[in-house]
Design goal:
This protein has about 100 residues and is an all-alpha fold. The chain is built from 4 helices and no strands. The protein has helices at about 1-20, 30-50, 55-75, 85-105. α3 (about 55-75) packs antiparallel against α4. The longest helix has 22 residues, at about 30-50.
């Protein structure tokens, strides 16, 4: 169940970041409220995951899901640029999180 909480926490983190972008500097109440709620929900789910998973790899995977997810949302939905260097950096994030999981006993 820890993995379910961890993946949910990472995906909710993406919602939080997108909501921050859409809040327009906290001037739009709907996206602002969603950002706050998503941040709280993400931390709650991460806390539940950490009850069953080791801290280091779990935190790295949470931030990795959030980082890669936000980049993908930016590219696919917000029209942000794609470059070979940007794709390499995403691959390095994924490789690092998979590596941390692979070496955990």
């Amino acid at each position: 169940m820890g993995w379910v909480y961890l993946i949910a926490a990472g995906l909710i983190e993406v919602v939080m970041a997108l909501s921050l972008k859409l809040s327009d500097g906290w001037t739009r109440p709907g996206p602002s409220a969603l950002a706050i709620a998503a941040a709280a929900a993400s931390i709650f789910a991460l806390t539940k995951a950490l009850g069953q998973l080791p801290l280091g790899p779990a935190y790295a995977i949470w931030t990795g899901i959030g980082s890669v997810g936000v980049v993908l949302v930016g590219v696919l939905w917000l029209g942000e640029s794609v470059s070979a260097v940007r794709l390499l950096c995403i691959a390095l994030i994924v490789a690092g999180t998979v590596g941390l999981r692979a070496i955990e006993p």
